[in-house]
Amino acid sequence: MKQILFLLLIFNLKLFSQTVNCNFVLNSDFVDQTNQQVFSTLEKSVNEFMNSNLWNDKSLEAHQRVKFNLILNLNSYVGSNFTGTLQVQVERPIYESTYLTPIFNFLDKDISFQYDEYQPLFYNPVSFESNLISILSFYVYVAMGMEADTFRINSGTTFFKEAQKIVSLAQQNNIKGWNQSDGTRNRFWLVDTLLSNTFREYRTVQYEYHRRGMDFMTTDLIKAKKGVLFSLEKFLPLYKRRPNAFLIQTFFDAKSDEIVDIFSQGPEIEIKQTLKTLNRVAPYFGPKWKKIR
């Protein structure tokens, strides 16, 4: 009887801990290294670390787990030192559909860490263990916060605050990417702007775009398109305050192709005003907006 209870406990803990569905890919094409074993080991270890760890207090079924991709492009590998860039792509499902819509696309250029093959990876929320663990954990909470915001307005705050705690702990080690002086588009500024009232419209748009727009794509296409248009107009106040806000660019890095597809097919609706808004708040995507007919 005790053995059965023990096995049930282990099973429940495993189910309980699987709160994200992360696909970590390591690209070593730019590194001159004949022995690829350490890269394979790292890739496997990171995937196990991300997908088996306990990140929140909710037990989730497979289809409910936060889905995101991390693509590490290595620039150099010397001894146990890794440097490169990390592409972060977060997705979420659309209601009554198998379609996964991109909600966040961000390139982190400040990736550096030490890793020895078979080194265990453990997350401790109250201490800095390694830069690798801090980076990975940071993006887990960013991904969870991003997805939460698309289902209920501002519900990602708890997760963003956890990411901010990771920033604070990592700053004490003076590693690039965690401090406000390291640039304008790093991990410090990402979570700082997400939690700032100055950039509140970004999170409002994330909610409106998905819950009042995309989630109606399978049931009422006209309503869905109007919901998307309505949400995009809400970028204007943010643009007027901060015309170069990088959060706006990250939104369209994720959404520009989808927006073109939405308004280039299916029932037509009036989009003249929204095209003006798009060209104003996201002029760097002008060539794509011209594709909308």
Provide key terms for this protein:
four-stranded mixed sheet; 4 strands; globular; 293 residues; disordered N terminus; 11 helices; alpha+beta
- Can you summarize the main beta sheet? 4 strands, mixed
What is the percent of helical residues? 40-55%
Percentage of β-strand residues? 15-25%
The helix/strand class is alpha+beta
SS element count, helices? 11
Mean pLDDT: 91
| End-to-end C-alpha gap | 67 Å
List the strand order in the largest sheet: 1-2-3-4
Low-confidence segments? 1-17
DSSP summary, beta strand count: 4
The geometry reads as globular
Helix-strand topology string: HEHEEEHHHHHHHHH
Radius of gyration: 20 Å
Can you tell me about this structure?
This protein has 293 residues and is an alpha+beta fold. The chain has a domain at 1-137. It contains eleven helices and four strands, in the order H-E-H-E-E-E-H-H-H-H-H-H-H-H-H. The protein has helices at 2-17, 37-52, 131-151, 157-171, 187-195, 200-211, 221-232, 235-241, 246-263, 272-281, 286-289, and strands spanning 20-27, 66-78, 81-93, 100-114. A four-stranded mixed sheet has the order 1-2-3-4. The radius of gyration is 20 Å and the shape is globular.
How are the SSEs placed, and which strands pair?
Elements: H1 2-17, E1 20-27, H2 37-52, E2 66-78, E3 81-93, E4 100-114, H3 131-151, H4 157-171, H5 187-195, H6 200-211, H7 221-232, H8 235-241, H9 246-263, H10 272-281, H11 286-289
Parallel strand pairs: 1-2
Antiparallel strand pairs: 2-3, 3-4
